[in-house]
Amino acid sequence: MKPRKTREEKIQAELEKKQQIDNNIKKLLQEQKADERKARTKRLIGRGAIVESLIENPAEMTNEQFQEMMISALAAYKKPSTVNLSSSVVVVETNESATTAELE
Predict the structure, then answer these.
(1) How far are the Cα atoms of 19, 92, 99 from residue 81, in angstroms, in the given order?
(2) What pLDDT shows up at residue 101?
(3) For 62, 87, 91, 96, which has the most beta carbons within 10 A of its beta carbon?
(4) Are 93 and 80 in contact (CB under 8 A)?
């Protein structure tokens, strides 16, 4: 027959289990952050490649020139100027047109 564990030994065993669980959670959180960083890096590289493919001679541009060009391009991009909400219809107006969508 096995000797019974003392209460102190049981407490120590449970504390060790808790430490293992805490370490596993920490490791999983670190892996999750790494996965998020990798996904962000992949997205940035892909989007940067798309932008570069649309620019003439991108290798000849400085970072400052590229930034100025992007600021100008984004300033020209037209965002909705107003959004009107009613009970069942959403109207989004831009400088040029209006779009209507029915809500569920």
Answers:
(1) 54, 8, 12
(2) 46
(3) 91
(4) yes
Q: How far apart are CA 71 and CA 74, in angstroms?
A: 5
Contact assessment for residue 89 and residue 73, using Cβ atoms and an 8 Å cutoff: no
76, two tokens = 């020209």
**CB within 8 Å of 78: residues ≥ 6 apart:** 94, 95, 96
The CA R_g of the chain, rounded to the nearest whole Å, is 29
Domain range annotation of the chain: 1-54
What span, in angstroms and rounded, lies between the C-alpha atoms of 88 and 101?
9
Structure confidence by residue, pLDDT tens digits, 14-25: 999 999 999 999
What is the rounded end-to-end Cα distance, in angstroms, of the chain?
Answer: 69
Q: How many helices (H) and strands (E) does the chain have?
A: 2, 3
